[in-house]
Amino acid sequence: GQKVRELGLFGMTIPQEYGGLGIGATGYCLVAKALGHAHGAFRSLIAVNNGIGSQAILIAGSEEQKRKYLPDISSGRKISAFCLTEPGAGSDAAAMSTTAVKDGKFWVLNGLKHFITNGPSADVFTVLALTDKEKRAKGGITAFIVEKGTPGLKVGQLHKHMGSKAAIQSEIVFEDCRVAEANVIGNVGDCFRTAMKTLDIGRLTLAASCIGYAEKLLKMGSDYAKVRVQFGKPIAEFQAIQWMLADCATEIYAADCMMMDAALRYDAGEKAGPLASMAKLYASEIACKVADRILQIHGGMGYMVETKVERYYRDLRLYRIVEGTSEIQRLVISRAVLKDELQI
Q1: Which of 78, 87, 103, 287 has the largest CB neighbor count within 10 A?
Q2: Which residue in 64, 323, 327, 341 is the catalytic one?
Q3: What's the total number of domains in the chain?
Q4: Known catalytic membership, residue 306
């Protein structure tokens, strides 16, 4: 953890004026891809501080909020969390039931969030809650900064994963949790669009992580095929194996080009949300295909824990769900197409 802090990896996307590296989405994606080569699940340890845990404050927060929270988040002195998902509000985020009711100079939060990455260890929570049940996504959802130790905030049940076990997630419970007016991010009722925008950089780096995983798997498959002998020769000499490797390489290259183009355009200030969705959709789906092919190339050994292929296979399955399922990405993309807003 200390080495990660020294390298500044908790604040890659946060501007230098707030203590971060300020290398933007493009730089962060390159790091995320490299982490995929080493241990992709490690990405989750720094992803929230760089993405959804800081971006709402960076995009819509007051100058006072930025100076109070971002330096500690970017240095890793404080860990952040983003509380959006609920048991009854996953893909349909606007269906949330967590509420915030005004009481003098405070807001009182009640509700349950789940699948919250960094939940047990977070010091600073960005929490989305209903402030108008009728308006919901159209002016009825507000974001709040809630600090660890605030009365009424507690960590609930820990979640157990089939893969990506380095990502620690839990429920976060709010019971008459009183939050000061000064901790409202942006304007009351005007946060749903901001919340969706915070997901863009996360989706880009999820794509990058998938590409890193896939490149690692391709190398493992190629190396194994050159030494595994069947029918008197290395299986790399069989066309069936060669075609699997060729398909993997082609898909990885396409995903990498898509991701880098989207990241560069995000950093240039373009409307890159649909492009981020395209990159995340394609990279997560081809990475799962790559994992499946490489496991097949390894045969029975691919199913064994010794090769680590099975671990990558399990880890990658999460990426087609987290920060917007593949189906939600297709919805985002198709809406942009139908509104003539997609700039390719």
Answers
A1: 287
A2: 323
A3: 3
A4: no
